Amino acid sequence: MSHGVRIHRNHPRSPIRGTGHPVNNAPHTASPGGARAAGRTALATLAGTTLEWYDFFLYGTAAALIFNEQFFPSLSPTAGTLAAFSTFAVGFIARPLGGLVFGHYGDRIGRKATLVVSLLLMGIGSTLIGAIPTYDTIGFWAPVLLVALRVVQGIGLGGEGAGATLMSMEHAPPGKKNLYAGFPQMGTPGGLVMANVVFLATNALMGDGAFTSWGWRIPFLLSFVLVAVGLVIRLRVTESPSFSKVLATEDVVKFPLRESLRVGFPRLSLTLLAVVANSAVAYVFMVFTLSYGTQHLGYDKQFLIVCVTVAAALWFLTIPVWTTIADRYGRRTMFVWGSVAVLAWCVAFFPMLDTGDSVLAVVALLGMGLIIPVTHSVQGSIIVDTFPVNVSYSGTSVILQSGAILGGGLAPMISTALLDAGGSSTGVTWYLAGICTVSLAGAVALFRLVPERAPVPEPVPAPSLAGDRT
């Protein structure tokens, strides 16, 4: 029997892909406890992803404002910032590894167990970052330890994004797939808000001198407490109903990653292109803007962090609005026009910041917080709907983590290099406009490739492998 992806062409519930109706993972299976269990799972995925992104963004903020002095003091300010952003990028390079490992076991043994381990890894990595000595104490080994712990963070987060989206989406009631898949997406701005609030509060209580010297460690050490709370919440959820059905029907496959790639290169590559700009724009906005605004434009550090935090709060609050619209009216048109809006705002973003006018800076930053969620809110459900349920963790991880490294991980470093080479933000604007144009073209091509009324991917058949869970 073939191990490729089977398509059920006359399924009685064949969905309209892009309308928000059940698209993947076969017919919806109600979870134990119905809507209450689904809601509890959605909140658990939101709490878990928020805590993981808190750790991840805490590092990004510290890399932009602190780590160049503490871990690369012998370098020039620009070179030190580049080096700090390089360690930030290392976490993205490690994310595909985490996605591969956690994706494999998430499709073999279940979503819940892998999500618990991923949260533990992120918490341990962040806590230890708060404890490592700086360059002045142990020299060369300080940045080495920083990079090693950043790898641990990256592996942990690499297993989180796909698993949390799947867990919430597979528990969703019929007709609310996009809404429930959006809860883990809310963890990204939620984690940023939490990280910046803790960062600002600690800095305000201690003053700049003490905070730069040692106070920056406190937000990292706080991760231990936050992750403990997250684990209590996450351990209370039940396994995904869709994956439980895979186990019951013995549809587990031995190499889920290999089977997920049978979707085909055209669709995989176009899906990747469609989501890569969102990652790049978000990380330039959330991370690069802090160093650029303080070092080159003279904005106050606290002013920029507050603006980015408020923008992230808007991002967080508007995701349920956009996912509800996607469930009701369809996500395709919303995603395309959202991509156009992101492109347009990227063209205007740095020129507004460069004026040095605080009012225009607020408008630029808050505008990002309102526009980014239009596409970000549904990118998880778009990716998940590409794969059959028994290989969806692996397949979704490949797309998410590849997009993260190509877009987000390299964006602050590329932007810093372009700024240094050109002496102005013009190169950064062209870079963002270019990647947004590529993503917009990818989204349009993807939606043309996949018909509006698409067949339902059935689980990859593997009856002879069902007993092997390793």
TrEMBL record:
It is found in: Cell membrane. Residues 41-454 form the Major facilitator superfamily (MFS) profile domain. Residues 1-14 have a biased composition (Basic residues). Keywords: Cell membrane, Membrane, Symport, Transmembrane, Transmembrane helix, Transport. It is a multi-pass membrane protein. GO terms for cellular component: plasma membrane. Residues 1-36 are annotated as: Disordered. The keyword Glycosyltransferase does not apply. The chain crosses the membrane at residues 82-102, 114-132, 138-158, 179-202, 214-235, 268-291, 303-322, 334-353, 359-378, 398-418, 430-450. Its main location: membrane. One of its GO terms (molecular function) is symporter activity. Signal peptide: none annotated. Belongs to the major facilitator superfamily. Metabolite:H+ Symporter (MHS) family (TC 2.A.1.6) family. May be a proton symporter involved in the uptake of osmolytes such as proline and glycine betaine. This is Putative proline/betaine transporter.
